Amino acid sequence: MNKNILVVGASGLVGSQIFKNLKKDNNCLVLLGRKRLSSENNTEQIISDFDNLENLENNFQIDEVYVAIGHKLNLSELIYIKKINRDDFVRVDLKYIKKVAEFAKRFGAKSIGLISAIGANANSINTYLKVKGKIEEEIKLMNFEKIVIARPSHLLGKRPKDETQVIVKLFEKITNFFGFIMIGPLQKFKNVEASKVAKAIIAKMNSSEKGLHILDFKNFRNF
Q1: Parallel, antiparallel, or unpaired: how do β-strands 64-67 and 111-115 relate?
Q2: Nearest to 193 by CA among 221, 165, 162, 155
């Protein structure tokens, strides 16, 4: 059965893969983002800076929403975000995502798929993981019938309109090598292709299971 689906972050690494796979099933899609995707003129698009989503009107009934947005960080900021940059990070990864979820629910969404991060924990001393954990908790309180949270480690893939930095390429080579010895509880920290994360979260959203579902590497690896 075709669904009415809102995709937020379709220009990003995972979001673009989610959008690509959803299109294959002839779903009715609406994209929400800050810029129009010029290559998708045949798809309905809502352009917003996310600050005033509560004032947006929409005549599109939403069945489910996928949220794949986040403030762009460099590798070092995954460990420590300078105080001067924290407000921008919190605004996008907490406030905007919450606004998106509320917007989708206002127009009928029963299910939400969220791209989070491995180690997300609202009580973490790490700013990145703490904010990721906080937005997960906020989403859980919204009473969606189904919540699917994907927690990947470092994402592999060609980033749209973005040249991967040399340091990132080096990081990936090193961590891909050490990934071979990450077994058992350590495997969830393995690098994972964005395409696999997208397919895994879509598969779970398409299942008949309701409630909360947390996905990590063991759920991604077979896609």
Answers
A1: parallel
A2: 155
Give the C-alpha separation, 189 to 179, whole Å: 8
Q: For residues 156 and 166, what is the distance between their CA atoms, to the nearest angstrom?
A: 14
Q: Is the pTM of this model over 0.85?
A: yes
For the stretch 149-165, pLDDT in tens is 999 999 888 765 555 56
pLDDT by residue (tens digit) across 22-64? 988 878 999 999 988 877 767 889 898 899 888 887 777 899 9
Q: Distance (Å, rounded) from C-alpha 12 to C-alpha 73?
A: 13
Greatest pairwise CA separation for the chain in angstroms: 51
CA–CA dist 110, 86 (Å, integer): 31
For residues 53-82, b (16+ Cβ closer than 10 Å) or e, as one string?
beeeebeeebbbbbbbbbbeeeeebeeebe
Contacts (Cβ under 8 Å, ≥6 apart) of 12: 68, 69, 70, 159, 160
Domains of the chain (ranges; CATH) run: 4-220 (3.40.50.720)
**Which amino acid appears at position 150 of this protein?**
A
